[in-house]
């Protein structure tokens, strides 16, 4: 009888520990997991790494409308002082088309030289912002002046 009762006590401690662990996880990570606004990434002060800026604007509508909202907020620039704009040239979003498991973004700009210097960071910021704001499994294709970029 004593081994059976100690086993029941041990099971209760394990269950209590699991419940306590779940409560702690929800308290610590719950607000982040429940955030349904935009998660936008901008270059840091040095322009070498991306930093997260959260905006309390929930994108709504179709996939094209959500992606368009996220990209327009990215092009507006950061609200935080220690972050830089994504691009320093005049660029605009012409259209967004969502296909099967893909989003096609077409940008228009006059100065390709300024974008090509920081294109890697530009592309990474767009992809990261879209994937963290709009859940799903899709690939992002970026066109600049109707030419597919890599």
Question: If you had to describe this structure to a student in words, what would you say it looks like?
Answer:
Keywords: Membrane, Transmembrane, Transmembrane helix. This is GerMN domain-containing protein. The chain crosses the membrane at residues 12-32. This protein has helices at residues 2-34, 63-76, 112-117, 119-133; strands at 38-43, 50-55, 91-99, 102-109, 139-144, 147-148. The protein is α+β, with helices and mostly antiparallel strands and 150 residues long. The protein has two domains: 1-34; 37-148, 2-Layer Sandwich (GMP Synthetase, Chain A, domain 3). Strands 3-4-5-6 form a four-stranded mixed sheet, covered by helices on one side. Helix 2 (63-76) crosses helix 4. The chain is elongated, with a radius of gyration of 22 Å.
Brief characterization of the structure:
This is GerMN domain-containing protein. The protein has 150 residues and is an alpha+beta fold.
Structural class: alpha+beta
Count of extended strands:
6
Taken as a percent bin, the fraction of beta residues is: 15-25%
Estimate percent helicity: 40-55%
N- and C-termini, Cα separation: 70 Å
Largest sheet: 4 strands, mixed
Q: Strand sequence of the main sheet, in spatial order?
A: 3-4-5-6
């Amino acid at each position: 009888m004593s081994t059976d009762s100690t086993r029941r006590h041990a099971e209760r401690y394990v269950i209590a520990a699991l419940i306590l662990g779940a409560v702690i996880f929800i308290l610590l990570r719950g607000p982040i997991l429940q955030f349904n606004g935009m998660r936008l990434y901008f270059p840091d002060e040095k322009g070498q790494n991306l930093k997260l800026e959260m905006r309390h604007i929930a994108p709504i509508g179709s996939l094209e409308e959500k992606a368009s909202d996220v990209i327009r907020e990215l092009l507006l620039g950061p609200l935080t002082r220690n972050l830089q704009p994504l691009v320093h040239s005049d660029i605009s979003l012409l259209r967004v088309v969502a296909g099967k498991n893909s989003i096609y973004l077409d940008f228009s700009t006059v100065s390709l030289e300024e974008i090509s210097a920081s294109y890697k960071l530009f592309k990474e910021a767009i992809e990261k912002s879209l994937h963290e704001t709009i859940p799903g499994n899709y690939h992002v294709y970026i066109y600049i002046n109707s030419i597919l970029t890599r």
